[in-house]
Amino acid sequence: MVDILRFIFSRFGPQPVPASFTLSSATESNVLVVSEGSTGTSLLFLTAVTAAAELGLKVIFFTHNAFQKFPVCLQSIPNLNPDSLKRIRFVYSKTLDELLHDVASLHELLAKAAAPPSLLVVDGLERYLREAGTRSTPLKGDRSAAAHLAALLHDTATFFTQNHAPCRVMASFRLNQDSRETSCPDPLLAVLDRYLQVRCTLTQERRGLPAEAEEQAVWQVFLSGLGIRTGPVDAVSHWSLGIGPNGAMQFSPAISPEEHPETQQTVSV
Predict the structure, then answer these.
(1) CA-CA distance, 220 to 222, in Å (whole number)?
(2) Which residue positions does the secretion signal occupy (predicted)?
(3) Residue 106, pLDDT score
(4) What does the alpha-carbon distance between residue 44 and residue 8 come to, in Å, rounded to a whole number?
(5) Is the dihedral of CA 4, 186, 204, 85 positive or negative?
(6) What domains can you pick out in the chain, each with its CATH number?
(7) Pairing mode, strands 88-92 and 119-122
(8) What percent of the chain has pLDDT over 90?
(9) Which element (helix H / strand E) includes 151?
(10) Could you tell me which residues are beta bridge partners of residue 252?
(11) Which end of the chain has the least Cβ crowding within 10 Å, N or C?
């Protein structure tokens, strides 16, 4: 999954994607996107659409509610062919039980001779793992549910990989107010990290901007976790993300590979 993310960062960055780019056959580096606000969802959607439109991958996108309109991040993709979106299947799972059932049912695709997915995307894990609006501190049951869901996603992707072709997982987790204000890691993240081996952390540079200017701010993007160690040692793991007034996303390397210290591979959230 890290290879797809780095393709996204290069594709929407200052330098063209190398002509020699190919997807890796390794799929263990599944990704958890951790962010404040809705920027994590925007990155998931941009990744799903780009994977379908430019890499030819079949994507299954799990989310709570139907998108009333496409996110503005698609302004990043000029001349998008609407037919390419047919490679994305949206599944609207409103509860944790529904999500578990929907993911567990995916193996039936092979039995029906249907084309299996190459990318599983889950938006808003935190909404599935908490009782909406009732508490900010996860209970033991929340952590058990997180382990169950993350393991199911991992095992489902492994099933498709072993029986058809490489399948990857990418999910988002939105930090709650307590985590943002106290810099205290959410206990659920440690559970999810066991199965989603790469953390993609989006941190906003506020610089005194009002809350309504969030989507036009500059963000820092860090890739960290055990899955990073399986990638190229000279790969960039720290990027800057600028979001324009029209919603277009622009990435640029924040530190060159030669300057990137080994200690930055582990990031506390």
Answers:
(1) 7
(2) none
(3) 92
(4) 11
(5) positive
(6) 2-14+25-177+184-265 (3.40.50.300)
(7) unpaired
(8) 36
(9) helix 140-163
(10) 240
(11) C
